[in-house]
Design brief:
This protein has 439 residues and is α/β, with parallel strands linked by helices. Helices cover 31% and strands 23% of the residues.
């Protein structure tokens, strides 16, 4: 939502909004000119935004339908549009490069935006994370015909988009509270691919189990770490660096130096470079931009590194993401103890994937498990973090979030700490970092 707020502010529009909690991001938006309040009360809506003829209401489907302000706007004749619907309108007349997938889409779209912005093509970009190179999730260019969009599958939001080219990073089932079954989840991605414009392209993760209808006007390419039309070879990992050769259908670009040297980012970069290469970004531009990519906040974010302790934060909230994240940390620090703090996100996701979460979290040396972050959901009877904890096989404990600082203060065997989850654990990162620095 924040990149749309920034977009409209950049166009000289008045912007106001409601959010559940004040965060670093909402404070930044307020500094940039947005009027934001944090209690769901109609009385707090600024007077200038109560004229239905002058106000567009944009909402995320994560807002519950019982929200008082939403009910006010919907009952008073305001034009109301989903976030993705507005994104679709903004990007309709540009060459939209849309990155979708259960996981990896934020990193891949951010990489793609950086690759294009550092090239002769330039870019507009609406991203799902704060790109460290620019300190924002919105990039604008008056001269570029390209727009990079992170395409969200939640609530079928990405069906509002009209990609010129699309990329799909993964289709592991998620959001089953919306889709009901893996079959319906996959059908939604298949629908997304059907929205690609004539003479466009689809870059699809090799092995993705989608039934894509052949269309001679849309070219289909595959990619992965080791296989497909686009892939990596001669991968060298060591001394804090990852270097590899990027294989395309017609050429091999040697010595790609990964700006964020984490193994899971090799495949993400292959996908991003595939879309960039297909649109004319040169070999030299790919090499130079990939080397300078600094990453996205909350995506394998190295927050502290000393001789004694390392702290990494990651947004991973799906079992497959957890496995990839934990495995990458273990490869980076094979001789260190890996302690993970995980905050499950959503009751429904916890219920659907408790077994899978337990398997992935058992890869840690020690797990500190927090209570479930509910986000938009009401509690489900019998669904708590305990249904994960009881099946975890490594050293483990359950912890209330408010008790976490004391537990970490009194814990003397932390070598590598990995904070994981899509809830509000990020609100504690500064406090956790200070505790580790004091050690």
């Amino acid at each position: 939502m924040s990149n749309l707020a920034r977009y409209f502010l950049s166009k000289g529009k008045n912007v106001a909004g409601y959010d559940r909690v004040s965060t670093e991001l909402t404070k930044q938006l307020e500094c940039e000119g947005a009027q934001i309040h944090y209690d769901d009360k109609v009385a707090l809506i600024p007077a200038d935004f109560k004229d239905a003829n002058e106000t567009l209401i944009v909402y995320t489907p994560a807002v519950p339908q019982a929200n008082e302000e939403y009910l006010f706007f919907s009952g008073a004749g305001f034009e109301i549009q989903k976030r993705a619907q507005v994104l679709g309108l903004i990007t309709r007349y540009s060459k939209a490069l849309c990155c979708a997938g259960t996981h990896g889409k934020t990193t891949t779209s951010s990489m793609l935006a950086h690759l294009l912005n550092q090239s002769h093509l330039k870019v507009n970009a609406f991203l799902g994370g704060i790109l460290k190179n620019y300190g924002t999730n919105l990039i604008l260019s008056d001269e570029s015909e390209y727009t990079v969009v992170e395409a969200d599958e939640y609530d079928r939001s990405f069906h509002w988009l009209q990609p010129y080219m699309a990329l799909i990073t993964s289709v592991d089932p998620d959001h089953l509270d919306i889709y009901g079954s893996e079959k319906e989840y996959l059908k939604s991605f298949e629908k997304y691919t059907s929205l690609i414009r004539p003479n466009g392209a689809l870059v699809l993760k090799h092995g993705a189990k989608l039934n894509i209808k052949s269309d001679r006007t849309v070219k289909i390419y595959s990619y992965s770490l080791e296989e497909g039309d686009f892939h990596a070879k001669n991968v060298k990992i060591g001394n804090g660096k990852i270097v590899f050769d990027f294989v395309t259908p017609t050429e091999t670009i040697e010595s790609i130096n990964l700006g964020v040297p984490v193994k899971i980012n090799i495949e993400n970069s292959v996908g991003a470079m595939a879309l960039a290469w297909l649109n004319g970004v040169t070999a030299d531009e790919l090499q130079n931009a990939m080397k300078t990519y600094q990453g996205t906040k909350r995506r394998f974010d190295l927050l502290l590194k000393t001789d004694k302790v390392v702290m990494i934060d990651d947004y991973a909230h799906h079992p497959q993401e957890l496995e990839a994240s934990i495995t990458s940390v273990k490869e980076l620090y094979p001789d260190k103890k890996i302690t993970g703090i995980f905050q499950p996100h959503l009751y429904t996701r916890t219920q659907d994937f408790a077994d899978e979460f337990a398997i992935s979290l058992s890869l840690l040396d020690e797990l500190i498990l927090l209570d479930i972050y509910p986000a938009r959901e009401e509690p489900i009877e019998g669904v708590t973090s305990d249904i994960i904890l009881e099946k975890v096989t490594c050293k483990k404990s359950l912890c209330a979030k408010e008790d976490l600082p004391d537990i970490l203060t009194n814990k003397h065997d932390i070598e590598v700490l990995l904070t994981i989850g899509a809830g509000d654990i990020d609100q504690m990162l500064d406090q956790i970092k200070v505790i580790l620095e004091d050690k």
